[in-house]
Amino acid sequence: MVNDQPTKGLADVVVSQTKITSINGELGNLFHCGYEISDLAENSTFEELTYLLFYGNLPNQSEFSEHKNLIYSNREVDDKIINLIREFPSNSNTMDFLRTVVSYLSIFDSDKDNHSHQANLNKSIRLLAQMPTVLSYYHRLRNNLEIIHPDDNLDFASNFLYMISGNHPDKLSSQCLDKCLILHADHGFNASTFSARVTVSTLSDVHSGVTSAIGTLKGPLHGGANESVLKMLKEIQDIESIPNYISEKLQRKEKIMGFGHRVYLTIDPRATVLREMSKNLQNEFGGNMYDLSYAIEQTVLEQKDLKPNVDFYAASVYSMLNLDSTLFTPLFACSRISGWCAQILEQLDDNRLIRPRAKYVGHSPRSYADSNT
Fold it and tell me: For the ranges 8-22, 87-101, 134-148, 246-260, which has the lowest average pLDDT?
């Protein structure tokens, strides 16, 4: 018998099985293929994590070398893609750009007409490699700067910082961004990942699934929250004004961005790692971003009993890495592409069309002839 009682927002509804990510919201635990997220953030690299998500196990030295070479050798894009980027309106929303260019990339993919597992894996690796490239090209061109081509001698995080700024980054900045990428890589059946799985469950292609995911991630209730957090930090400016600022927002029933989570009943484990990262960056580069963030965290905990999620401390970290706020959510996507593609591959390997039902609560049956038309 079909249960026709709706669960708003599909909260706690199990729709499938997965071997990729496990979350325990009550304990605040997050695991990828059995490895705890803080363990991965401390000891792994983003490239190694992407291998884990795609294949289910950590690579040996030979496998890791081959995987990195595949990513690094696929970073550059076709000149027609670069021409599109040059012609894209400079005042566009960066997520709109990313959604559009990912869709356009599908036309030039050498496996576009092949839907085997290996071909889909190839597409996934190319997207993983190319998204930071197109994002950096767009950022520089919209700021009237010449594009900087990828440096195959640099790892994923260092290369992105290099393409954005034109300068080879310091070790701390590269390490911090690498950890951010690890923390954002996958998070179970979140809204954007579910969008990707729904799309490919129709036997659509990988690029279409990722395009759907990017459109979903754009929303401020998902990946867009980190930009709003930075806006809040800039509005507050000094610690003394925080209690009144938070109190007034709560009185107006406004959401405090970067706090609370649909899954975690305690603090988001990724936020714990990012908090320490934010503190280290302030100690190294100065400013008061961490101090402001920590004071806001304590105030919201006191006034609303809410704990920070991954977006909250990510805002201060990205800001101290000198990344423009328009890059925050797209950079999230450059990490989450690994999780999206891993989930897409898993969906297609044991596919069934995702087709839920809705409970109808509209007008009872009536006759057209009896209506006054």
Answer: 8-22
pLDDT band at 214 (very low <50, low <70, confident <90, very high): very high
pLDDT band at 6 (very low <50, low <70, confident <90, very high): low
Pairing of strands 35-36, 21-24: unpaired
- Contact (Cβ atoms closer than 8 angstroms) between residue 198 and residue 212: yes
The region, left, alpha or beta by phi > 0 then psi within -120 to 50, assigned to residue 223 is: alpha
Rounded (10°) angle between helices 46-55 and 171-184 = 20
The residue with greater pLDDT, 357 or 306, is: 306
H or E, element range at 30: strand 29-32
Look at the block and give the residue holding tokens 């509005």.
235
Distance CA 197, CA 83 (A): 31
Give the pLDDT band of residue 3 (cuts 50, 70, 90).
Answer: low
Whether pTM exceeds 0.85: yes
Domains of the chain in sequence order: 21-222+327-349 (1.10.580.10), 225-320 (1.10.230.10)
3-state secondary structure 180-232: HHHHHCCCCCCHHHHHHHHHHCCCCCHHHHHHHHHHHHCCCCCCCHHHHHHHH
Q: Say if residue 11's pLDDT is above 70.
A: no
Active site residues per annotation: 261, 311
Number of Cβ within a 10 Å radius of residue 129: 21
331 C-beta neighbours (distance < 10 Å), count: 26
Name the strands in the sheet holding 35-36, side by side, starting at the edge strand that comes first in the sequence: 21-24, 29-32, 35-36
Helix (H, G, I), strand (E, B) or coil at 18: coil
d(CA 48, CA 65): 10
Question: Do 83 and 101 meet the contact criterion of CB atoms below 8 Å apart?
Answer: no
Residue 143 CA to residue 14 CA, distance in Å, equals 45
pLDDT in tens, 255-303: 888 898 778 878 889 999 999 999 999 999 999 999 999 999 999 999 9
Query: Using alpha carbons only, what angle is made at residue 87 by residues 86 and 91, rounded to the nearest 5 degrees?
Result: 95
User: Does the pLDDT value for residue 9 go beyond 70?
Assistant: no
